[in-house]
Design a protein that fits this description.
heterodimer; A: mainly alpha; 2 strands
């Protein structure tokens, strides 16, 4: 049985052994830490400054996990961090989303690095909603997009977290993008 | 789209890719899906177009 007092590395190992309580214990710990890191970035925000998901996720990993955490633990942590990062970015986007742009007015630029600025708040919310719809149809593709775009993970890290090859991640990503373009009515043309 | 229809669409798409034996540089946009399910042809062509977008 996992408890919130356990070190993150132990919780990650417990989760790997199918202890769902460990995941339940991990989420708030990771969320709180990442939220505080994100707020530090956002306080320094100025026009043109953006919040980098990768920076926040990696800093949280360094703060929360033992230095000797294994690669598999790191991959699992990054998968959780991507989910948490998504929530933080969506919360931030909602808070900053003025209706002057109008929801749905902008289309997602899939090739943009995922950052949050007031200009991109609408895109973050659109992507979040699209991923929620995609998860109902194809959960793995939704997780892969979440890790790549919200977590800032590399193909290799995403592949490790999903237990597939980087080539599979690339193929799944291409198909997921096609689904999103279809869903959002964005042909990219 | 239901999960089963999406899975069927992907299966047919990848089968068409294998069948066409696309060479590097050839576009999925030009793919002519081979399948017996005519009801999926329009969606399959659309998917091929969207898949080809870089």
């Amino acid at each position: 049985m996992a408890s919130p007092a356990q070190p993150v590395t132990q919780l990650l190992q417990a989760w790997r052994n199918d202890d769902q309580n460990a995941l339940n214990a991990l989420m708030p710990v990771v969320y709180d830490q990442m939220r505080s890191i994100a707020e530090l970035y956002l306080r320094a925000e100025n026009p043109g400054h953006t919040l980098g998901a990768t920076e926040v996720v990696h800093e949280a990993f360094i703060r929360l996990v033992d230095a000797d955490a294994g690669w598999e633990d790191r991959a699992h942590f990054l998968a959780i961090a991507a989910r948490v990062m998504r929530r933080i970015l969506v919360d931030h986007a909602r808070a900053n989303s003025s209706d002057k742009q109008g929801r749905g007015a902008s289309k997602i630029s899939l090739d943009d690095a995922l950052v949050v600025s007031s200009e991109l708040a609408g895109e973050v919310l659109n992507l979040d909603e699209a991923l929620t719809r995609l998860s109902a149809v194809d959960a793995r593709k939704s997780r892969i997009l979440e890790m790549l775009y919200f977590g800032g993970l590399t193909y290799e890290e995403t592949a490790e977290a999903e237990g597939v090859s980087p080539v599979t991640v690339h193929r799944e990503l291409k198909m997921a993008k096609a689904w999103l373009r279809r869903e959002l009515g964005n042909s990219g043309e | 789209m239901t999960p089963s229809r999406w899975n069927r669409l992907q299966h047919l798409f990848y089968a068409a890719v294998d069948e066409a034996q696309l060479l590097p540089g050839e576009s999925h946009r030009d793919l002519l899906p081979f399948n017996n399910d005519r009801s999926l042809q329009p969606e399959l062509r659309r998917l091929a177009q969207l898949y080809a977008v870089r």
